[in-house]
Amino acid sequence: MALNNTYDARLVQQETALGAGVQILVLALLGTAIGMGPAGWLTGLAFAVATWAVLSRALHRSRLRSFGPANRVTLGRSILVGGVTALVADSFQSPPPLTLLVGLTAVALILDGVDGKVARRTGTSTALGARFDMEVDAFLILVLSVYVSMAHGPWVLLIGGMRYGFVAAARFWPWLNAALPPSTARKTMAALQGVFLLLAASGLLPHLVELGVVATALAALVWSFGRDVLWLRRTSRLQPGVEARELVAA
């Protein structure tokens, strides 16, 4: 039995290494296609290494015996996000091909609705898979907000930074760590952020319309986070002895 566990652990780690290899291949293809500069290359490589390291450590701690089909879909999404990250970093030196940026982002957003369905249908839902999915979503929103902020100002970064600000605040106010009840509205607001930012980044809309789209996205996110924070605060006052169970962000 111990030998099987060791073999499975190695197999799982091999999948994360393969993901890093595919990420580097994607960067090479992008570099060849658009002549990507040092900023794009270094940022993309840093993303690949960080994803491999963090995911490998999380898999080791969770002791999953199989990576699972849903996690493979999420890993594929993270590879696309790595490509988008490299393009956005490179855009500080030269404008990226919008068709390429929009295409990679659109596929990553579409696949966001696939990995959860795969996990449920195959009975392979795990806490690690859910967290992996959430982190990929959050980082894509952060990267898109960085890109859109170059046209509309640094206030757009509030969209990408809000989730990370929530995580940081929870270190000072432990009641923010309590589990939130399931919410369709929260999931909808989170999904819309990527769609709105993609619209703003596409260059297909007039400047003022883009501004309105991004402002709407920020307002919706503030409402979603604000509602959850108020619920958590109210619950902590009603149940002051309850212990934090897990970190859940909108």
What distinguishing features does this structure have?
single chain, 250 residues, mainly alpha, 78% helix, 0% strand, globular, disordered N terminus, disordered C terminus
Can you put this structure into words, describing what you see?
The chain is an all-alpha fold and 250 residues long. The chain is built from eight helices and no strands. The protein starts with a helix and ends in a 12-residue tail after the last helix. Mean pLDDT is 86; it is low at 1-7 and 242-250.
Number of helices: 8
Estimate the helix proportion, in percent: over 70%
* Unreliably modeled segments: 1-7, 242-250
Number of strands: 0
Structural class: mainly alpha
For the CA atoms, what is the radius of gyration? 19 Å
* Residue-averaged pLDDT: 86
Largest sheet: none
End-to-end separation: 40 Å
Write the layout of secondary structure elements.
Elements: H1 2-34, H2 38-62, H3 69-90, H4 98-122, H5 127-152, H6 157-170, H7 184-202, H8 207-238
